[in-house]
Amino acid sequence: MAKLFHVPLSPACRKVRLSLAEKKIECELVEERYWEQDPDFLRRNPAGKVPVLRIDGKTMAESAAICEWLEEKYPEPSLMPKSADARYEVRRLVTWFDDKFHHEVTSKLLYERVNKKVQGAGFPDSKNVKAGARAIKYHLDYMAWLLDHRRWLAGDVMTLADFAAAAHLSALDYISDVDWNRSAVVKDWYAKIKSRPAFRGILADQVPGFPPPRHYNDLDF
């Protein structure tokens, strides 16, 4: 069985978990306190980051590379379209969320409010929290624009781009940092993806000291 070293609210880990679950690949989840720099973990990934996936006798790091490998090794059900142009759009949006959204929103909200407390790294920086709260509005509006023109974020079918976005938004939703009333089309998109069987494991996550909001597990939120 595959084994994933992860942190429950890490969007990078959640993206890999969603890909594994969608492809029905059984996987044991092992929570890893990566910030403690355990020597055994550093041997698995000298970069000291999660996720790390052990599968088919291989140990792999970096969520984007892992998801691409899974797509090539286990192509069904597909999370990447067939044409080069469509695949480019998926990769562009995955990078958008894992880079731009991460730096402008996730690192300012989730990392300040949760990671600092869990890691014993002090109190949230109010300037960062305010900046993240402002930035998420722009990103939700951009998602709304995309979804006004497409059924899913990257086109007419669900792809890895949707999982990348949902991984970030679900982690932020856990701490009530998403205004779902800002856009009906984004809320409907999230309700669709949240109802998929692959999402069940994500919705079962519990972080000590941080209970999820009442609506978190509600598929009809």
Q: Could you describe the 3D structure shown?
A:
By secondary structure, the protein is of the alpha+beta class. Helices cover 54% and strands 8% of the residues. It is built from eight helices and four strands; from the N terminus they run βαβαββαααααα. The chain has helices spanning 11-22, 39-44, 63-73, 84-119, 126-149, 160-174, 184-194, 200-203; strands spanning 2-6, 27-31, 52-55, 58-61. It has a four-stranded mixed β-sheet with strand order 2-1-3-4, covered by helices on one side. Helix 4 packs antiparallel against helix 5. The longest helix is centred in the middle third of the chain and has 36 residues, at 84-119. It is globular. The termini are far apart. The mean pLDDT is 95.
